[in-house]
Each structure stands twice: as C-alpha cells, then as structure tokens.
Amino acid sequence: MTLEILAGIMIPFVGTTIGAAASLMCKRSVSARLDKLLMGFAAGVMMAASVWSLIMPSVEMAAERGEPSYLPASIGFALGIGTLMLIDVLLPTEAGGGAKRKRDMLILAVTVHNVPEGMAVGAVFAGLMAGSDGITLAAALSLSIGIALQNIPEGAIVGMPLVSAGKGKGRAFFAGTMSGAVEPVAALITIALYVIVVAVLPYLLAFAAGAMIYVVVKELIPEISEGNCGILGLSIGFVLMMIMDLAL
Prior knowledge:
The protein is an all-alpha fold and about 250 residues long. It has eight helices and no strands.
C-alpha cells in the first residue's frame, strides 16, 4: 500500500513534467503573433483553472461542512490577490526587466496554484490510509490522474514562454517541471498533518485562485489585448482547461 500511495501522489507531478516537455520542442525564437498566442493560452488556462479547479471545489468543501459556502472562497481569494500584489511591489525590477517580471509572476502563480492541488491529493490518500468510508484506492488514483491531465497545459505555459524569450530549452523544461514539484511535497505534508491541513484547504484553494487571477489581469491581459492572436489563444486555453476540469 505504501508504494501505491507514493506512486499516487507522484502522478500529478508526471503530468506537469509532460507539459513542460513541450518547451523542448519549441523554437528558440518565435514570432510576435505566436508569443501573444502562447500568452493568451496561458491566461485562458489560468482563468479556467481558477474557477473550476480552485474556487468551485472551495465552495463545495465549505458547503459539505455546513459553513457559508462563499466564506472560504471569498477570504482565500482576497488573500491571494493581496499577497501577489505585495509580492509584485516587493519584487525587484531589473534593468529592462519588464518581460522577466512577467515570466516570474507567471511561474509564481502556477507554482502557488499547485500547492493546494497537491494537498487535495494528499488529503484523499490520507483518508484512504485511515480507512475512511467511500475512499478507495481506485478513487484516489482517479483524482491523481485527473489532476495530472490538468497539469499538462500548466507545465507547458511555464516552460514555453521562457523558450520564446530566448532562454535555453533545458532551463525552460526545468522551470516547468519544478513548478509541479511542490505537489508531491504538499501531498506528503498533508498526509503527515492531515487534520490541520484539511481544515484550511478551502481557503488555500481560493488563495491560489486569487494569485492566478492577479497575474492574468496584471501581467497577461495587457500583453494580449492588442490584435486577435492573444484573444484566440485565451479562448483555446480557457475552453481546453474548462473541458478537462469538468470532464475529469
């Protein structure tokens, strides 16, 4: 059982790694149109993930506990926005570093978003280990596989913009992969501290949503607002992520 649980909590990380591998197939330099398309795709993925992967589960968890369903989502979302706003203010600006700042914020948002997802996986496997009714190994693995499939485009949106910015493909792949490395770590922490972490999980999910929406509005939408390429990419990313979230 221990090996099965370890494999289960590593599955979402595998999905992120597969997505990050897309950066290895990118050209080192891309056209301005393709760059806007990629940025728009990233924005669409993050917007859809914020709603269906984070806010809606937060609302559902609160409702199941008999709490006001809107409360954890509202508090967590506001804290996520506020924290990213503070980080944005404190993040040092290097000479000509506008593009770098944008990429840093994108990587940070995706990484933050992966933490509560890892905790959700850890919570399910902790329940399985505790013998909770209704939790089977098949159900726990299904959750891990579903999150792994959602993580594929997320790994890609971290690595591919780095390649388009002229960074090495290996560096881009590493960055995309490491954005998902927090998931198994968060899952293990949740298993170890199950009672404490599960109590605040709805807030953490909404916190991650707030962080992602802040980056979309502050960094990505201004970048893609001119022309139709960015809007097309946003539509593709949003619809793809929405389908994956709802189907899985």
